[in-house]
Structures are given as structure tokens and as C-alpha cells.
Amino acid sequence: MVNLAIPFCSVIIVNYNGKHLLHDCLTAVLSQAYDRFEVIVVDNASTDESAGYLETDFPAVTLVRLPANAGFAGGNNEGFRHAQGDLIVLLNNDTIVADGWLQGLVDAVGPAPVAIAGSLIRTEGIPEKYYEKNGSLNFLGHNIMRKFDRSENTFFAGGASLIYKRDILGTPFDGEYFLYLEDVYLSLRARFLGYSVTQTSASRLRHLGRDTTRRQQASRMTMYQERNRLLNMFLFFSTPTLLKLLPLFAINVCVKLAASLVVRRYSFTGLLRAYLWLLVHPATIAGKRRVLRAARRVPEDAVTAWMTSDLTNAEAGPGKVINACAHLYFRLAGIRTLEDMPQGTR
Question: 320: Cβ–Cβ under 8 A, 6 or more apart, which residues?
């Protein structure tokens, strides 16, 4: 007998040429003991016969075929349109979830103040020390590791595995993002609506990481990463705050463009495309800002208080000095960050 008191969940998985990943991913998801959930796989016009494989080997899964690649953002938005659940779960196809993964997410998102809960994601290649404490986001859109002492505290939930309340957030993403930093966008929406974002160690999974995105052109990846980092700042934060951040934005542009000439981490052309997009789309940005600002329910400092002033992940040497200088600048500029949190609450 179905227990209607248990929330119904829609698990959405976006796939693009990930046929080789689907067996392990879906087998683990469909083996969950949680009673009430559906699985929706959105295929982003794959050319590796993923759709046919799903129809043959996983008939219990709802398959949504897209005529063109809509990216992670557009794919999840399309999956949402087919979802029946009150709770929406977003999961990467390059993951293998553990037993109890779904129940852990449902329990974590249950409290009224919580809009989004993320899993404890173990990504291959990430040093173990970075799982000792959760990280936060800085004002250039970068993830800064090891910032929170309490295991449930985090600034945003990673898009590789998260759950959110449909009635609060609805369609998850702005389709403009395509891929990268959409999870930050979703978490910022929740926080400016006055809700919290949490992480739970009761929901665990293994993330292979970059299995599909590594095949994309470096310039395209850099463009979306850099543009979306800055776009999140431009969309959600007030003009006075953005003016205070202007020196950091200028330093960011100069340092990354220079670094792209000597290291492979950034694509010079990708960076130029990102900055050019932001420069030539002021009307688009302004329109999105108006919609998001009309929806906000809490003051800005309630959100910045969960972000970090750190500019690097360094805990010693020159990076530590840079972070100390940045924190001093934020204090002088009157922007409260998590470094100002009282002891025991971080």
C-alpha cells in the first residue's frame, strides 16, 4: 500500500553522450529503498545511442528526447516540465549513489526553513582534506574550500546531487547558463527568498567528475565558467555592492587574461568571449536583475554573511596574505562575510 504521507520525488538526470555511464548510475538509483520516486532522463540529442539503450535496458525510466543539446540548465528545466514530484532531485549521470542516498536528501530538505539540500559528493581526484570541512563561494564566483566548521553548513548545494522544494523554487535554472554555476544560481535564489541551503552526510555518492565536459572545447568551457561566475554576481547583488567589488573584478580580469598566456587552466579566447558577452548584453542582464530583485525577501547582508572574502584556497604563504588583505578590504567596504560570523555558528 502506498503511503501518501511520504513525499513523491522526481529524480532528473541529464545525459549527453553518456551511454557508458548510464548502467551504473541508473542501477544505483533504481535500487534505492525509498518508496515513492520517479526517474526522468533527459537526453540532450546524444549521438552515442544513449536513447535507444535507455528504451531497451531501462524501460521504467521516463525518457525525454531533446532535438538539440540544451545543456545542463536547459535539460534540467525540460525534465522539470515532465516531473510529477513535490520534491525535485537533480543528479549527474557520472555519479554512483550509495544506499540511502535519496532518503537522506528527503530528510535533510524536510524542515520548513530549508529549500535545498545537497549530498556529500566524493569527486574522484579531489584530496581527502577538502572533505573535512565544507566550502563557500567568494565574490568572484569561485568555490573556496574548508570554510565551515559545522558539517551541515554550506553556501550552495552542488548540482551533481541536490534536492529542492518545487513549491518554493519551481523551474530550477535560467536556461542562458547552459552549463556551470547553475547550482550557485539556484542556491542564490533560495537564499534571497529567505530560505537556507544545507548539506547532509546521510546522502552520499561517488562523482566521476568532468567525464562529459572534458570533451568540450577548452574555450567554450572557459567561456561558460567565467561568464556564469560573474553573471551570478551581476544578477543578484545591488549596484552599490557591485561598485564596491569593481576593483576585484578588474584584478580578476587582468590576472586571468595574463595567466591564460602561460598556463592551460584558462583559455584566452574563452575569457575574451565571456567578458565580451557581459559587455554587450546589459539589457539582458538588467531584465533578469529586475525579476530576481522583485522576488527577494531578505536584505543582502543576510546572503553575503554566508560568503567568503577569501580570494584563494591557500592557507599559507602569499595566498594567505592575499586573503588577509581581501578581508580587510571587505571590512572597510562594509560587506559582512562569513569571516565575521560568531564562533560556533560557522
Answer: 314
CB 89 within 8 Å of CB 102: yes
218 half-sphere exposure, CB direction, 13 A CA radius: 8
Residue at grid coordinates 518554493: 168
CA 19 to chain centroid, in Å, comes to 23
Percentages helix, strand, coil for the chain, rounded to the nearest 5?
A: 45, 20, 35
Q: Using DSSP, state whether 130 is helix, strand or coil.
A: helix
C-alpha dihedral, 160 to 95 to 41 to 33, nearest 10°:
-100
* Rounded Cα–Cα distance for residues 46 and 54 (Å): 12
Set of cell numbers at residue 53: 539503450
Q: What is the 3-state secondary structure (H, E, C) of 6-33?
A: CCCEEEEEEECCCHHHHHHHHHHHHCCC
Q: β-strands 136-137, 143-144: how paired?
A: antiparallel
The distance from CA 72 to its chain's CA centroid, rounded to whole angstroms, is: 11
**Burial tier of 294 (Cβ tally within 10 Å: 0-12, 13-18, 19+):** exposed
Tens of pLDDT along the chain (346 residues) come to 445 579 999 999 999 999 999 999 999 999 999 999 999 999 999 999 999 999 999 999 999 999 999 999 999 999 999 999 999 999 999 999 999 999 999 999 999 999 999 999 998 888 877 787 899 999 999 999 999 989 899 999 999 999 999 999 999 999 999 999 999 999 999 999 999 999 999 999 999 975 544 555 789 999 999 999 999 999 999 999 999 999 999 999 999 999 999 988 889 999 999 999 999 999 999 999 999 999 999 999 999 999 999 999 988 899 999 999 999 999 999 999 999 988 778 8
